[in-house]
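Backbone shape codes:
***
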Amino acid sequence: MIEKLLEGQFQRIQLFHVRLAFSDDMQNVGKFGIKKVWVLFTTILKVWLARVRYGTPVLYYPPSGPNMVPVLRDIVLLCATRWLFRYTVFHFHAGGVSVFRPRLPSLFRPLFDLAYRRHALAIRTSDLNPDDGVALGAKRSVVVPNGIDDMRGKVQERTADNGEPVRILFTGVLIPSKGVRVLLEAFAQVAKEEPPATLELMGKWGDASFQTECERFVQQQGLTGRVEFLGVKSGEDKWKHFAGCDIFCFPSYFEAESFGLVIAEAMQFGKPVVSTRWRGIPSVVDDGKSGFLVPVQDPQAVAQHLLLLIRDPAMRKTMGEEGRRIFASKFTLEAFHRNMEDALASVCEHDRK
């Protein structure tokens, strides 16, 4: 989303970017490494140089989720840079860092306060997420939903004809808290009912042991040939799988989940969704209208709602159309740029009033 923000054309704000390149992928998030220490200190230097060169009064920063190594990194970086800027804006793409303070050693808690507290503006992706900004003493807190490019019409879409298998798609990092094992267990229940359906899981494995566990489960349940692990897809290949599925399923309970951007990516193609009542996800999925929301870690509920959609093509079509309408009205990239410009421009404007 930061990359998409930088692509925007704005009238009231100007952006100067220092890249935060701490982790190459999700597998390295939250893990310590010597290279990361070097990147941290060179990033601090780059922020200092950018502040001197451009003279911007506002530091915009996306705080980490509630994980020890990223929080300690944030503390070092923010304590070393915030003092240079008149205003600090935190954009909480990950939720929950505000409750992490008690888990820190007492020595680090004053530094946590110095790094995170009393900032000018907090931005979160949904009003259902933890209000980290208010908890950390932000002067103001606003909600800006994420937005994406509209890819409809740029790749070929398909839906299952009568008698064809219904394709269910999951997209995300393949780790337990994204609901991967929950989905596999749910699909095993679906398969026992013998409707024609297949399951595709698109994304990178979080670790080899979980990959082995899931692949063994597929074999033991006799699902080989009906479940496919696609790996990482990008560009047109990625969009073809979104456009080619019939149902999108995302039973996440990920610790730092705040929005579920992949849900909007499916909704743009008119796909009904089965997801969870977790964090900001209900602000994207209209339960009973554009899809279904179920409790977290409940394979039976996931299976029941997948079966409803598998057996009812008309429901899939109606819910998909409503999802497309919601996407077009709330989650486009144009709306994201407009809302972000309003939020960031308001930092200085609000202070002058």
Observations:
- The mean pLDDT is 93.
- The longest helix spans residues 34-54.
- Residues 155 and 237 are 9 Å apart (CA to CA).
